[in-house]
Design a protein that fits this description.
The protein has 241 residues and is mainly alpha-helical. It has a domain at 1-131: Tetratricopeptide repeat domain (Serine Threonine Protein Phosphatase 5, Tetratricopeptide repeat, Alpha Horseshoe). The chain contains ten helices and six strands, in the order ββαααααααααββββα. It has helices at residues 46-58, 62-75, 80-93, 97-110, 115-127, 131-144, 149-161, 165-178, 183-200, 225-234, and strands spanning 4-11, 14-21, 204-205, 208-209, 216-217, 220-221. Helix 3 (80-93) runs antiparallel to helix 4 and helix 5 runs antiparallel to helix 6. It is elongated, with a radius of gyration of 21 Å.
Length: 241
């Protein structure tokens, strides 16, 4: 399977991508080898189309690679790796996140134990702003592979976007416990910790709970679960400033 861009990075409420990780679906029943120019006339079988898609992908010709994987799927709809590769290209290289979600969704339907496809599905959903659905996909990964660092990391990011800072902290903490040397997980765990403290200790002014700056995304206010709990316990309403 094509290498999947797995890690989401929370920076000032935004998301960047880095650290390409994963496995590459080398071929159907074989190993990808370097070949000379391949013409469409030479392509006959599912394996041929899949092989050509890999070659185009490594050459940076993503549209051509996508077309090859589509042809492979036409010949064998159950070719899970082709659906997965299709999702990676659409999500990571062409920015067509809904189509990527559909591809990953089909890959997980065909093989519900395909961990990489579940991660890809979560990433596509995240890009679509469907954070709760992304979290569900990442949880599916952790059910299949409890120590899957990328899924746990991305789980922390998705929770952070929902301002569920306690859950975000817990996810990053698990990554740190699995890999104590990971400075990125430590940094984002601390970010989640600080955001949680700000929320829990939100100031009270004139009988109102004032949300911290981290509750704002541009001109929009997002009320976290912790703020709601604080309001319920104190009986004081939340007021934007």
């Amino acid at each position: 399977m094509i290498a999947l861009t797995s890690l989401l990075i929370p920076v000032c409420g935004q998301v960047d991508w880095n650290n390409r990780t994963g496995v590459f679906a080398i071929g159907v029943g074989g190993i990808l080898v370097e070949v000379d120019d391949t013409s469409d006339e030479d392509i006959r079988t599912t394996e041929d189309w899949f092989h050509a898609g890999n070659i185009y992908y490594f050459d940076g010709k993503y549209e051509e690679a996508l077309q090859c994987f589509d042809e492979a799927i036409k010949l064998d709809h159950n070719l899970t790796d082709a659906w997965y590769n299709r999702g990676v290209i659409l999500n990571d290289h062409l920015g067509r996140h809904y189509e990527a979600f559909m591809a990953f969704d089909e890959a997980t339907r065909l093989n519900r134990f395909n961990v990489d496809a579940w991660v890809g599905k979560g990433n596509a959903l995240y890009h679509l702003g469907k954070y709760n659905e992304a979290i569900s996909a990442y949880y599916q990964v952790t059910w299949l592979h409890p120590s899957h660092e990328h899924a746990l990391f991305n789980l922390g990011v998705a929770y952070y976007q929902l301002q569920k800072y306690r859950e975000s902290f817990e996810a990053f903490d698990k990554v740190v416990r699995l890999s104590p040397s990971r400075t990125d997980a430590r940094e984002y765990r601390e970010l989640a910790r600080q955001s949680y403290r700000e929320t829990v200790n939100a100031p009270i002014v004139g009988g109102y709970i004032i949300p911290p700056a981290s509750s704002y995304r541009g001109d929009k206010l997002y009320i976290s679960k912790d703020l709601i709990e604080q309001s319920a316990k104190t009986g004081m309403p939340i007021k934007a400033y």
